[in-house]
Specification:
Blueprint (H helix, E strand, L loop, with lengths): L12 H5 L6 H7 L5 E4 L3 H12 L3 E7 L2 E7 L3 E5 L2 E5 L4 E5 L5 E9 L2 E9 L5 E7 L9 H8 L9
Antiparallel strand pairs: 1-7, 2-3, 2-9, 4-5, 5-6, 7-8, 8-9
Helix pairs in contact: 3-4
Amino acid sequence: MRVEMRSQQIRDPLDHQQQVIPQRQQAIRLAGPTLAHRVPRAAVRELFTWVTAAGTPLMIYVSNPGTVHIHSGPLQRVQTMGRWLVARNERFRVQLRTDRIATAWVVRKPTRDGIVSSLELFDRTGETIALVFGERKPGFTEPPAWCAALARLPSVSTPD
């Protein structure tokens, strides 16, 4: 199989999320280790704990049938309740079923504004559970504290 990748910069990750991309996880795997690497499934818990302690604001996209929920801002509390990871502040609460996370990836996307990094969580069927970014506005680079938090996450080997 031959794969061709065009070098194309995305204006903003929000625009990119509206495009239908078949086999997103396969594309991430093919991007190579400089643009994407797999991290432990529990990485979201560690990441939320670190950014909460640092006060680093996030953008969290969670899809449900018929809608996409988006949170922007810092988290104030992170806790585990059985199989649920609950992160919240005074305006927002996100609940993730950690037992349904099959794979987690740190992904780096080139944009006009520089690299935009995310933690991307997938279920066993390859569907996106959540996308987590450092909060930023178009035209600005991502926060250094966000980049530092992602850099702390260990890589795991990817099965072929």
